Amino acid sequence: MKVFIFLIALVITACVPQPKSIHQVDIENNSSETINNLSQVRIGLDILLEEKLDLIRNKSIALVTNHSGLDKNGVPNYKRLMTQKNVKLKIIFSPEHGLFGEAADGEKVNYNGQLNTLPPVASLYGSNRKPKKEQLEGVDVIIYDIQDVGARFYTYITTLGQIMEVASNQGIQIMILDRPNPITGIKVEGPILDLNNRSYVGYYPIPIRYGLTIGELAKMIIGEKWIEATPELIIVPMLGWQRGHWMDEINIKWVNPSPNIPDLETAIVYPGMCLFEATNINEGRGTKKPFKRFGAPWINKQKLSIQLNNLNLAGVVFKPISYIPVDIKGVANNPKYENQVCNGIEIIITNRNDFNSINTALSILSIISKEYPDTFEINKSRMKKLWGKDNLLDSLHSNEVFDKSIDSFNDASIKYHLYD
């Protein structure tokens, strides 16, 4: 009889779904699963070249781009434009990280005419952040074609605004070749930037995760008068993209938009985890998993992982790890705690639709600030620029984790939507 009851218990246990351990989730998330039935999306660049060349025919072009400006076959936009009849590509401007994505975060870039096979190339992240007047002499249209990640402090969108200001002042059209927001155009997270904290890593009064494409953001910049002068704007929209699309659900190949955003999952955690740049915690730079892990020599990783998992945050679990950040040229120059053992956490997303990067980052910072009050440090000046407001410390110790004006932003931004 005891054996019979034992066998029944085994059957019942086998039939009842068991909770997954962190390690099971980790294995499943790193499995190579092929995604079928990708939605077919045509980006602005391909539509311009295949259907709307009249917009640039017989015109002199300035192109703002980098390594992410590829057509559907992986050919750089500048190569395509250079082969078009009756189109003159006069100059190429590159943003932070350089034309080829070769420079690390904050690293200044200057080409000084050494790219002999291309038209003149000028960096907008070197001695100048805006094109010089003489560089745009004779230019009819400035084309902007860069893959964004959907986070306010990604400096490509600051370059966008500054290019728009210059274009307006010189009477030049600006054309946006639209590309997907890789982390969807649905979710909006974080506080809206207070313009008293305006900087190169925060140029507009928008949330950290703002849920727009570049074309939509450009429309909103002009419509809300966020820059001093407004140019004539032409947007070449995508076809087939929907607001709920993640980048791996469409046929557009992933290209690292910058050295420390190597994959889509990193882009998903980035809006919240970038806040760690303003602390004395290593944010994963100097490793193969930037922003997906964090740590410091003085953290008790086991205790912290238990505390974080006990919060039952939506769509995420936390795994204790140790790692050693190293200097990686062009990716991570002099990372925090270089060549030291950092004890910390790896972030594992279990449901990206439920995951909230801002709430997750604030929960982590709140626990660390309480556990290590004499060791944990925040660079207040840097944090104001990233967080966008002066109240991060208040947010860490209260239930109010983001600005309630997100609702008003959503109401204002919807009229600039180009896609359903």
Describe this structure in words.
This protein is 27% helix and 12% strand. The termini are far apart. The strands form 2 sheets. A 6-stranded parallel β-sheet has the order 3-2-1-4-5-6. Strands 7-9-8 form a 3-stranded antiparallel β-sheet. The protein has 2 domains: 44-253, Uncharacterised protein PF07075, DUF1343 (Rossmann fold, 3-Layer(aba) Sandwich), CATH 3.40.50; 264-389, Alpha-Beta Complex (Aspartate Aminotransferase, domain 1), CATH 3.90.1150.140. With 420 residues, the protein is α/β, with parallel strands linked by helices. Helix 7 (264-273) packs across helix 9 (357-371).
- What is the overall pLDDT average? 90
Number of strands: 9
CATH-defined fold name of the largest domain: Rossmann fold
Radius of gyration (CA) equals 23 Å
Please report the distance between the alpha carbons of the first and last residues.
Answer: 63 Å
Summed up, the domain count is: 2
Q: What proportion of the residues is helical, as a percent range?
A: 25-40%
State the CATH superfamily name of the largest domain. Answer: Uncharacterised protein PF07075, DUF1343
